[in-house]
Amino acid sequence: MSVVSLDSKSFGPALARPGILLIHWGASWCAPSRTFGPGFEQVARRHPDVTFAKVDVDAQPELVEVLGVQALPALMVFRDGFLLLNHVGALLAPMLEDLIRQARALDMDDVRRKVAEYRASKVRVRVGLHAE
């Protein structure tokens, strides 16, 4: 699969799709971003079931602000809309392969259960703090 470019309109739908999404945040003026790109594209070709995307930070400042990207290159890994990794710095292809392996191995039903438990505990805390 080729690497797709994301913008403010396509970001939400890409994130909403089930499965693994890797996003490379970079810029043409950033040497480490340029170095990271070919390895990212190489790994993308080996994993057609994974969505590989890039965001040009100069063209998408609103996404940069909303997602809090502060350094380049940055890599975000999502699965089923859950952010699994927010990494700053270039990674080698074997590291990307390992991240994909780890993302695939996650039991997403367990992740959803734990998130629901966490959210429920936060609601109880808030209610307890505001009770009279």
TrEMBL record:
A Pfam short name: Thioredoxin
SUPFAM superfamilies: Thioredoxin-like
Domain of life the protein comes from: Bacteria
Thioredoxin domain segment(s): 1-105
InterPro entries reported for this sequence: Thioredoxin-like_sf, Thioredoxin_domain, Thioredoxin_H-type-like
Stated name of the protein: Thioredoxin family protein
Organism: Archangium minus
